[in-house]
Specification:
This protein has 287 residues and is α/β, with parallel strands linked by helices. 46% of the residues lie in helices and 17% in strands. It binds NADP nicotinamide-adenine-dinucleotide phosphate.
């Protein structure tokens, strides 16, 4: 049995599907009982509704599992504490393998959610547990989640310069990689960067969107202040808004680039291109 935390989110659902497709039995830990149906539909064999900040919930979640795939909550101020609690619970329950879903370039101190992940990596390395760390680039699914709006407006909007270059990864490739490392002991002790493409400018991305959608799509920078107002209206908390603004500023100043060789080696095939990911994701959408 493998425990997946943060299981109700987009990463969790993809990882559950990939693990279940290889015959693994998954226990999904979700924050909110409303996610129960989604993780069961993805194939989870068991569901625990619990809070990652509560030791009692964690004790129940880790009981009897062979391995853990820990997905931290997205941009959470207590991400380090959560990581430490999950690692402590796993060590106490003698879980044999801890796989941590980190992020590409956790070393960047100016991005708080990256820096907290680096501190969790440090804690895991010093825990004495057998571990593997995956460091994903920005997901292609961050783009595909707005496909309908992009088609409607003919515009791909980003809160940084359209010349900003980012490497991307397909969440399905990441999930396949997670499944590979969780089911092969040979990846214990490894830290792998999960990158699927070279660094693409936002104009490059708009061009691929246009090719796949069969209509002209323009990349457009929206002012950060506008993005902040929208984020506030949609209910994002101030820690999340401030952290994401720092991330956008880092992206614009330095880009966010990695190398796809490790993911290609691990998967035994070329990582999925943005074009192929978009083609797959538009299937079934009424576009
Ligand atoms: N998106 C990217 O491009 C990208 C790239 C690299 C790494 N990452 C990292 O991947 C991780 C997951 O991202 P995601 O996009 O899959 O996030 P997500 O969809 O928001 O999923 C995170 C899940 O964690 C749950 N959660 C939050 N607080 C919790 C708590 N106290 N106890 C138990 N569960 C809790 C959330 O439940 P509720 O909704 O009920 O709060 C949610 O289901 C993040 O740490 C992110 O930094 C993302």
């Amino acid at each position: 049995m493998i425990l997946v935390t943060g299981a109700g989110g987009k990463t969790g659902i993809s990882v559950i599907k990939a693990l279940v497709s290889t015959g693994e039995i998954v226990r999904a830990m979700v924050n909110n009982k409303d996610y129960r149906e989604a993780v069961l539909e993805a194939g989870a064999g068991e569901v625990i509704v619990g809070n990652l900040l509560l030791s009692d919930d964690l004790l129940e979640a880790v009981h009897g599992v062979r391995a853990i795939y820990h997905i931290p909550p997205n941009v959470h101020p207590e991400e380090l504490k959560i990581g430490q609690l999950v690692i402590n619970a796993a060590r106490g329950a003698r879980v044999s393998h801890f796989v941590y879903h980190s992020v590409l370039h956790p070393q960047i101190e100016s991005m708080p959610h990256h820096w907290l992940k680096l501190r969790v990596e440090e804690y895991l390395i010093e825990s004495g547990m057998a571990y593997t760390i995956l460091q994903p680039a920005a997901y292609m699914q961050n783009i595909t989640s707005s496909l309908l709006e992009i088609v409607e407006k003919g515009v791909y909007q980003v809160p940084y310069s359209v010349n900003t270059k980012l490497s991307l990864v397909d969440l399905m490739d990441l999930a396949d990689a997670a499944s590979i490392v969780l089911t092969n002991q040979e990846h214990q002790g490894a830290i792998y960067e999960m990158v699927g493409t070279k660094a693409l400018s936002q104009q490059d991305i708009a061009k691929v969107l246009g090719e796949v959608l069969g209509k002209g799509i323009q990349a457009q920078q929206v002012p950060l202040a506008y993005w902040e107002r929208q984020a506030k209206t949609s209910g994002l908390a101030s820690y999340q808004i401030d952290t994401l603004v720092k991330m956008f500023q880092h992206y614009e100043q330095f880009g966010f680039a990695g190398n796809a060789s490790v993911l290609g080696w691990l998967l035994g095939r070329q990582p999925t291109s943005l074009k192929n990911c978009l083609k797959r994701e538009i299937t079934g959408l009424e576009i």
